[in-house]
Amino acid sequence: MTLLAVDAPSLYFRAFFGVPESAAKAPDGSPVNAVRGFLDMISTLVKTRRPTRLICALDADWRPQWRVDLIPSYKAHRVADPVAGVEEIPDLLSPQVEILLDFLRAFGIPAYGVPGYEADDVLGTLAARSTRAAPVEVISGDRDLFQLVDDDRRSLFLYCGRGVAKLEVCDDAAVQAKYGVPASGYADFAALRGDASDGLPGVPGVGEKTAAGLISRFGDLDTLMAALDDPKAEIKPGLRTKLRDASAYLAVAPTVCKVATDVPLPEVDDALPAAPADPDALIALAEQWNLAGAAKRLVDALAARAALPE
């Protein structure tokens, strides 16, 4: 009953930059490299991870106002239109997203976002619902999602930083080995360290090693900040000053860094399809966009998975 929960924006951005435009073009010459790459990624994941359920999470709101209200710099450098708050997306990628969603509908693979939330929050809620009988595997290239690992619930993170073919399958031990903190402490660790890609400043002068040491020693930010008032706490004077100076930031940063786990998700049929839900639509799309090969590879992967015993 394993659910493969896909960070769709993460994968289609990677597909866009990973597959040359010249390698996948529609008959009219328009590039469809992101679509082909994404479909091939899903084919590979179905074959290698063998899920029984599949959901693609989308960004209904890529920069939620409730996060911006807490930290105004959150993703500010990625805003293409300051008035509309539109994300900066390559011109040749934007139209491919709608094509990709058309393909997913034809296959019968659910893809959705929830107003006011990012894809990460959808994935976080799906992971929070995992159980040992119905585990969840989250696939993304976003480091923020290391926090979703939970061995007790059998929630795994498939990190595709080096591509889908070279997945890092991460349990809590893997997160600990990689960053020096347990998955449960990753969000607090990230708040301390900061993340330039998300516009999170972190605490000036506190790098990854120091942040990991603090979370490893104190467990969480609340305990760490409380220790600043304890003269017996083993915190160097200079570091103590840096943390106190950043107290306003640290009071809100964990809320921004932690993915939501209580998003009101729609009810969908997430069973992995054995065959396309709308074969005629799929054939038409494959012909229109010159993607018969990628479509067939996913059709074959789904059929092969359906033929396997549970």
From TrEMBL:
Keywords recorded for this protein, A-Z: DNA-binding, Exonuclease, Hydrolase, Nuclease
SMART domains recorded: 53EXOc, HhH2
One Gene Ontology term of the molecular function aspect: 5'-flap endonuclease activity
Gene Ontology BP annotations: DNA replication, Okazaki fragment processing
Superkingdom of origin: Bacteria
Role summary: 5'-3' exonuclease acting preferentially on double-stranded DNA.
Protein name: 5'-3' exonuclease
